[in-house]
Amino acid sequence: MGAWGKRLVAVGAAVVILVAAVLVASAVHLLPQLRNPFAEKTEEHSGPVLLQSIVELSRYEAASGSFQVVVDITTSNALPDFLAGSQTLFLGVGTDNAYVDFSRLKGDAVKVSDDRQSATITLGHAQLEPATLNVHESRVLAQQQGVFNRINDFLSGNPNSQQALYELAQKQIQAAAAKSPLVADAERNTKTMLTGLLQSLGFKNITVTYAGNPAG
Prior knowledge:
The structure is a single chain. The protein has helices at residues 3-27, 47-56, 147-156, 159-179, 182-200, and strands spanning 59-75, 86-101, 110-112, 118-124, 127-128, 132-133, 139-145, 205-211. By secondary structure, it is of the alpha+beta class. The strands form two sheets. Strands 1, 2, 5, 6 and 7 form a five-stranded antiparallel beta sheet that branches. A three-stranded mixed beta sheet has the order 3-4-8. The chain folds into two domains: 1-39; 42-211, no CATH class. A hairpin with a 5-residue loop joins strand 3 and strand 4 (118-124).
């Protein structure tokens, strides 16, 4: 190998050693850390940006409840009960969920202080989803039928009888959910979630309020 070849090898070795030394020094914090030039270097905590972030969540499924209702369906007519008429006691088991809708929040829903230490969020009240009946856990508790009713059910199969029980049970579960603390729980859970989220962004004073008529 000629003199020029030896020099090139020596220069190459020196470059490798220098690069390795820079990497090692960076690893032990002797030199400034090597950073990803594409990494985000600034954070934006303004009102419009926070509002957009919350709106993108669409809605927050904040609380869920389980309910049991007893449905009593009684039919009667002029004939004696043993001939015509029926009474059915049906246990309906189901669930309902409460959520807070973020998708329709407007520009004044999120306010941020000038020092970006405080934030106020105004939301619509929590709402209930349609109740869901669990047909596998629901069941007939007791049933009495007159002779004519049993004959009619045997001949026709009476496909609408069970469906009527399901529909009435679902409505009663919905009503029970509306009277329960489910909506209040959803609003409290949503407040807790948003407070934690904004605290992680550096806000120290967070206020979450609900405006408008409470939804049932």
